[in-house]
Amino acid sequence: MLWSQEHYWFLYFDVPAYGAIRDCVKISRSWRFDSDVPDAAVLAALTALVARYESLRSNFLLDDAGTPVQAVRPPWPVTFDLRLRAGAAELPAVTERLGARPFDPARDRPVRFALIAGDAGDSWVLMTAIHCVIDGQSWIALENDFRSLLAAGHAGVPLPGTRQPREQAELDHSPERARYRERVRAYWRDRYRSIPQGMFPDYRPAPVGHFAGFTPPSPYERVTLTSRRLVHAAELVAAERGIGPGVVYLAAFGTVLSALSGNDRCVVSMDTANRADPMLSSAVGCFFQPALVVFDVAPQDTAASLLNKVFSATVMAQRYARYSSLEMAEERARAGHERGMNLRIGVTYNYFARRSPGTGAPAPDGTGDAGSATDDFVVEKAPIDWQDNSADLYFAVEAGEDGVTLSMHGHVSVTDGDRIGQALRGIGALIAGWADGTLPMDLPLDRVQDELALPRRRFGPGWVHVDHAWADTRACTALLARLPGVVGAAVLTEGTDDGGTRLVAYVAGDTTPERLRHGLSAALVTHPCLVLPHRFVVCADAPEHSTPRAWATAVVTAEGDGFPSRPVPAHTPGERALATALAARCPALTVDMATPYLPAGGRAALAPSVVDHLEDAGFTGVIPADLLGPLPLGAVAAKLSPTPDARK
Prior knowledge:
The structure is a single chain. The protein has helices spanning 3-14, 39-52, 91-100, 138-152, 165-172, 178-192, 230-241, 245-261, 303-319, 325-339, 417-436, 445-451, 473-481, 513-522, 548-552, 573-585, 607-616, 624-627, 633-638; strands at residues 26-34, 58-62, 68-72, 82-85, 111-117, 122-130, 220-227, 265-272, 289-296, 347-354, 378-382, 393-400, 403-411, 463-466, 469-472, 486-495, 501-509, 535-539, 556-560, 619-620, 641-642. The protein has a seven-stranded mixed β-sheet with strand order 9-8-10-12-13-7-11. The model is unreliable at 365-371 (pLDDT under 50). It is α+β, with helices and mostly antiparallel strands. It contains 19 helices and 21 strands. It is 34% helix and 21% strand. Helix 2 (39-52) packs across helix 4 (138-152), helix 8 crosses helix 9 and helix 8 crosses helix 11 (417-436).
């Protein structure tokens, strides 16, 4: 498999999390052509496309080791799944119908076609494919070839100067790339060990999608800012600093993101095309992957230093943006287990440039008027155009010949439409101020944030910043107090020998550090933003007054990090069912109900087959992603529900 294919292959098995049957993530396009062209010629051109590109006839299977692989099928004659006489107004409805029937990546052809025959001289071919085989840039090559084939009618043969996905996958997995793969793994491993638990520690999942014909209200709000003049301001700053405009928007977004979230360290997922190799520039396949951009927005930073920092972070992220999605999921889960938190990226940035710098909309007049680059801002609420529970905050920039559109949508548990509107105005005003000099490049960013009145996150009593993450010690203390045997608890911060800070849980009662950590780990099901203490201290008695000094002088009966010293066996029916599934599908794993799936020896690629085994045995309630997080196996098993025909 291409590493980028792994991500979408895995999502196929996670779709039931939204209450629907399994289906692939899909991507669609339509191409207009002269309605005088006969159907036979259109079908011949599409059939030639299928023959030319392996990606359009690929399925995704499991090899003997349970690893997903791509299998290229022989060419096949194209037929239309739908054909009707209508106009352009029907394009959205026909596209929806074309993709309504689920795709099975192991069995179904990965692409479907429809034809709308128009009455006014125009017709349209519609194409829907699973995202495993197509990315956005592939459509350019496909459309160009379709039109050439439609005009010339020549046979479909591989184009010179391009590499097929299977060839690229073999290259990525080759021994010659071993050193690069290890550098990539080291980059991601380091980032996972030093990023916040989440940019927004308030995030709470909410269902999105369709549920038996019912679609609940979206848990997202979206706002856009459009401007004809802002695009030139960003290009001016970029030219002066010797960077791309996309970096300028990202630096401005980071300044706002830091204020919104209360985190100095910004973690942003940014899609990258992964097509720097000339053999991939016009290839058809799924090559893009998210790059992980991490940079600090320190209060004393200036715009100049931040732009340099973001540029360097972006270059580094793109350098290591070709990676195994499944292996990096494993690295994230292991790092989260070690750090005692459910690591969540949650923030995404995309930059789309559809213009040549210096063209289109009028440039700023250069008068130095502070409002000259912001007086055409139009901020308005907009419908949600994309949603899933992987996003806490999504920021997109579309720069076109008529200006730029900034679009941001956020989950209602972390923000709202008014704050999103403020954030967009702040991003625009920041870039405009950099361009016209009203916000000097040497002005500290904390003063900039204050001058622009950016919405700021303030953490209240009980919140502490440890291990690059915000932790709610009051919530953690309350959870500890409810665990069996606990009669008193407090979560405090203590300094470490290396000058850092750690969380320490002091508990009185009949318990052990292992039971305490296991109980808190299980609470991650309902408290996904919980940060576990680094150390657990069990005391003989709770002090009369719960103060740090009182707990520090209490009689200690046991202490430790809480990691299990020996495997915890399965006891409940759900645990026994999970243990059986793991033994059948993951023979190398040591079954330990106190340890998560991946640290126990599981593999991300095998998680879907474990869930399938459970369903065959009559147990539902978990999805593969449940195995890829910090939940101990016992907590995963607690989510299982037996069906009436469950095996005993």
